[in-house]
Amino acid sequence: MNEKIGFIGSGKMAQAMIKGILSSATFAPKQIKVSAKSDETINKVKEKYSVHATKDNEEVAKWADILFLAVKPDIHNEVIQEIRSVIAEHTIIITVAAGITLDTLESDFGKKIKAVRTMPNTPSFVGEGMSALSINDMVTSDDLEQVLAIFRSFGEVEVVAERLMDSIPAISGSSPAYVYMFIEALADGGVKDGIPREQAYRLAAQAVLGAAKMVLETGMHPGELKDQVCTPGGATIEAVSALELNGFRASVLQAMESCTKKIKKL
Ligand SMILES: NC(=O)C1=CN([C@@H]2O[C@H](COP(=O)(O)OP(=O)(O)OC[C@H]3O[C@@H](n4cnc5c(N)ncnc54)[C@H](OP(=O)(O)O)[C@@H]3O)[C@@H](O)[C@H]2O)C=CC1
Ligand SMILES: O=C(O)[C@@H]1CCC=N1
Q: For binding NADP(+), which residues are annotated in this chain's numbering (predicted)?
């Protein structure tokens, strides 16, 4: 692809996407320009990814054909006010900020823009991202194809109705955090029984990866896959029973509700 991609904000989420994009070789480092607030981040990003990095948001906004806004929601509008006058008509604006709606984007820019609201996740860093996005009526089908190609370069992407976007962090944007907690807990259980810590992480992480692949690749219902593991009268059903007694599923659902409630307030 020949487009120039800009990132305003080069923190954890932007760097995960940049790493994923460059690893897939869909874009070369010279096609990416980023900005950040501190010299520390600028220098780190230059060194790690060989992309152009600056503290000048306007420079990035003026240059990019596709511009990611990857700053925190509380300074999102401040950044838009800084760059709105230099945005070209053809530029596609992609926000990754949680809770920022397409209406907010348009009204902050104060004009019709090509706007894309997205929710990626940090596994984009290893090319296994899961993103969801919705677009406004200025985005053409060609624009959408370009955007999808970028997101596919670091994982999977789903186009969803904007009314569902507030619910995406809970299921795929934030959920890597709870999965890491689950992996850590599995490893702790192994360590308790004497399994060396590093080996315990490998055992736990690969079991989670394998289970996820089974869901994606067999098309079988997760409940049926669970049943395959539970030998009648065996050990797994004892573990399942203990998880149910301790409200495992209810905890996950409650965590997701809390997440979505917060997104609506951001
Ligand atoms: N982390 C995640 O898993 C996910 C995050 N998101 C969204 O991504 C966005 C960024 O989150 P995350 O990457 O985690 O946060 P970080 O704090 O890691 O990154 C924020 C970045 O914004 C930069 N920044 C701060 N102020 C300015 C400014 N005035 N102009 C330009 N850049 C500025 C910071 O610069 P410096 O480094 O110099 O401080 C930093 O690089 C959020 O809106 C969040 O909702 C979405 C999905 C998942
Ligand atoms: O914690 C947050 O607000 C962001 C949104 C999804 C992941 N991180």
A: 8-13, 70-73
* Rg over CA atoms, the chain: 21
| pTM confidence score | 0.97
How many Å lie between the centroid of ligand 2 and the Cα of residue 2? 30
pLDDT digits 0-9 by tens, 74-128 = 999 999 999 999 999 999 999 999 999 999 999 999 999 999 999 999 999 999 9
User: Are 31 and 134 members of one domain?
Assistant: yes
- Count how many domains the chain has: 2
Q: Which among 144, 165, 186 is the end of a domain? A: 165
Nearest ligand 2 atom to alpha carbon 262: 3
Ligand nearest to the CA of 8: 1
Binding-site residue ranges for NADP(+) = 8-13, 70-73
Statement to judge: residues 248 and 149 lie in one domain: no
Coil, strand or helix: which one is 161?
Answer: coil
Task: Specify the DSSP element, H or E, that contains 115.
Answer: strand 114-119
User: Which of 138, 165, 192 is where one domain is finished?
Assistant: 165
Question: Atom of ligand 2 at shortest distance to CA of 98?
Answer: 5
174 Cβ below 6 A of ligand 2: yes
